Amino acid sequence: MLITNLKQPKCSAEMMRRMGRVIAIANQKGGVGKTTTSINLSAALAEKGKKVLVIDTDPQGNTTSGFGIEKNNIECTIYEMMIGECSVFDSIRKNIVERVDIIPANVDLAAAEIELIDAESKEYILKKYIDPIKDEYDYVIIDCPPSLSMLTVNAMTTADTVLVPIQCEYYALEGLSQLVHTVNLVRERLNPKLEMEGVVFTMFDSRTNLSLQVVENVKSHIDEKVYKTIIPRNIRLAEAPSYGIPINLYDSKSAGAEAYRLLADEIIERKF
């Protein structure tokens, strides 16, 4: 009996070490820094010792290429996984950077919307594959397509939370209200545990009054958590994807790298 009691905390601690928190990064508006956030938040979390799985659910495959993978020469992507042609284990590319694995995507994924239209429980296909492996990771980051499609719904049924990047521009609130409505619908009908992770501002330019006005305007209109970290408009952030590496490896001391480290700290500290 004494041995059992001694072993129990060790087992619990081991289980707690990997919680497998699944975060969908979503915004139906394109060009808001969604993919940039998926890549660089994942890398920043890994830099802090966390094990991360990145899932690219965008047929453009920009997260995949942003990690240096030649997306058009892959045999086993998320598309083949979702239609049952390969296993989740065959789909994962291990250690693309230290402590980061990825399930890649390419343009083939665009066909999934049509091919899965009559599939049974089509809203839960991704969840079926990810649930058994998510606790092998501290974080699972899902980059969603810039639309409220079946792929986005699959990401949200798989996720615990939704993180929304918002570009500091005039129409920022318009897109956010639509997305929050979608999150609420998914919570009501498909995934009762889904929560809003929060909002993160991207492409912030401190030289313009507009960026400052957008931040204040959004904060005054929403109830969701707004992360303190604001991602700046940064030339090094824009350059990094063309080299196929995240910002913390491309220019570790840049403003963009520091911002994503701060965001990673906030994500780690956030409790649900």
Key traits:
eight-stranded mixed β-sheet, Rossmann fold, 18% strand, 272 residues, alpha/beta
Characterization of this structure:
The chain is an alpha/beta fold and 272 residues long. It contains 13 helices and 8 strands. The chain has a single domain (19-269), classed as 3-Layer(aba) Sandwich (Rossmann fold). The protein has an 8-stranded mixed beta sheet, with helices on both faces. Helix 9 links the parallel strand 6 and strand 7. The longest helix has 18 residues, at 172-189. The relative contact order is 0.18.
For the sheet with most strands, the description reads: 8 strands, mixed
> What characteristic shape results from the CA principal axes?
globular
Radius of gyration: 19 Å
How many helices? The count is 13
Assigned CATH class: Alpha Beta
Overall structural domain count? 1
Name the beta content range. 15-25%
Give the N-terminus to C-terminus distance in angstroms: 34 Å
**Roughly what percent helix?**
40-55%
Low-confidence stretches: 1-16
Quickly give the structural class. alpha/beta
Quick overview:
The protein has 272 residues and is of the alpha/beta class.
Q: What layout of secondary structure does this protein have?
A:
Blueprint: H1 2-17, E1 21-25, H2 34-47, E2 52-56, H3 62-66, H4 78-82, H5 88-91, E3 93-97, E4 100-103, H6 112-115, H7 125-130, E5 139-143, H8 150-158, E6 161-167, H9 172-189, E7 195-204, H10 209-221, E8 226-232, H11 235-239, H12 247-250, H13 255-269
Parallel strand pairs: 1-5, 1-6, 2-4, 2-5, 6-7, 7-8
Antiparallel strand pairs: 3-4
